[in-house]
Specification:
Blueprint lengths: L1 H11 L8 H4 L2 H12 L6 H8 L4 H13 L3 E4 L2 E4 L7 E4 L2 E4 H19 L6 H27 L3
């Protein structure tokens, strides 16, 4: 039964060994993909090599082939552009990749400012708990934002 299904898939030209984007987006391939996401124009192999300061164009070619196989980038007139945007932890605004936790961090800071400035601070247990909760959220979302920016993940 399984053999018949596999034979059918191979006959139809469907590649069942196609990689997931998460498997492809690691290391240098991730750096190349991020560069293409931020670029406003198609980039050539040598331009990518110079920008990322890689030792050889063949390294770029190898990683672009992996990205092309995963359908994340495509070739247009010899240069490469993003074919499919695959963002897990970031939001793309113009040419910027902003970690999604950054927006939660801004919200938590806004809540804390609202509690400390706008609301009349009456030092009760409920007020202290709400301020501590806002501070905890700021620490958590700040840590996650910095982690994504440093790691460079999507």
């Amino acid at each position: 039964m399984l053999k018949d299904k596999l034979h059918f898939l191979f006959k139809r030209g469907i590649d069942i060994a196609e990689k997931e984007p998460a498997d492809t987006l690691k290391g240098t391939a991730l750096d190349i993909y991020r560069l293409l996401l931020k670029a406003d124009k198609p980039l050539g192999i040598r331009e990518i090599q110079r920008t990322l300061k890689l030792s050889s164009p063949s390294i770029v070619q190898h990683h672009l082939a992996k990205l092309e196989e995963a359908c994340l980038v495509k070739r247009e007139w010899g240069d490469y552009v993003v074919n499919r945007v695959e963002l897990e932890n970031c939001v793309k605004i113009s040419s910027f990749l902003i970690p999604r936790h950054f927006f939660y961090l801004i919200f938590a800071v806004g809540v804390l400012v609202l509690e400390l400035v706008v609301l009349e601070p009456v030092f009760t247990l409920a007020y202290a708990i709400s301020v501590v909760a806002a501070l905890v959220f700021i620490v958590i979302f700040g840590y996650e934002t910095v982690k994504v920016w440093r790691k460079g993940s999507l």
